[in-house]
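Input record, target 12 of the design panel.
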């Protein structure tokens, strides 16, 4: 394993910090969001991170890990060196990231929630997914989070916000003024966008 370098990057959510690695953790387009230790059953890396008493959420994507802290009064300046050193040591030592491939897990979950949409809804949903993947997700990943398509039904798009987005003060504004406007403009059938995963 080559030497791992990691830098920390602030996100729009003051409680979340993005740790960017020079190693690939997941294939592009696949990410995992663990809002609790119990949810992290598939990731030994996330379980280890939850061992730090100030870690409240862990999000893992292609080449970064976003950590959300539980205590607003703890300064990132104190926490970054410890987390960066832990991640560096863990990845360099070849520690296990996942027990089940998240890409396979994600496919199974999407198939389970897809249901049986009408052909028209299916075409509209595919347009929405393409727009989210090509225009929205790259920007959201820059901020240490992710957006995934959940469903489209009668003009309403439901998305899931993950990582730093889930508790971000500006998430609702971004959702309404950015994502909703884009989708309405590009897909006339869309009337509104709602999100799961926003913590207030």
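The sequence produced for target 12 reads:
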């Amino acid at each position: 394993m080559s030497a791992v370098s990691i830098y920390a990057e602030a996100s729009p959510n003051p409680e979340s910090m993005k740790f960017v690695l020079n190693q690939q953790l997941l294939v592009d387009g696949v990410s995992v969001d663990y809002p609790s230790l119990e949810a992290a059953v598939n990731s030994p890396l996330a379980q280890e991170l939850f061992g730090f008493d100030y870690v409240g959420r862990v999000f893992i994507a292609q080449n970064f890990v976003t950590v959300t802290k539980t205590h607003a009064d703890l300064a990132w300046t104190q926490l970054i060196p410890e987390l960066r050193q832990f991640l560096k040591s863990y990845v360099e030592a070849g520690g296990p990231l996942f027990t089940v491939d998240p890409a396979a897990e994600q496919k199974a979950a999407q198939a389970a929630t897809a249901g049986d949409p009408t052909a028209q809804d299916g075409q509209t949903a595919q347009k929405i997914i393409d727009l989210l993947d090509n225009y929205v997700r790259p920007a959201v990943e820059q901020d240490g989070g992710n957006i995934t398509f959940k469903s489209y039904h009668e003009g309403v798009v439901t998305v899931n916000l993950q990582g730093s987005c889930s508790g971000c003060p500006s998430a609702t504004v971004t959702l309404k003024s950015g994502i909703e406007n884009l989708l309405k403009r590009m897909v006339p059938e869309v009337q509104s966008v709602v999100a799961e995963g926003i913590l207030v």
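The chain has a mean pLDDT of 85.
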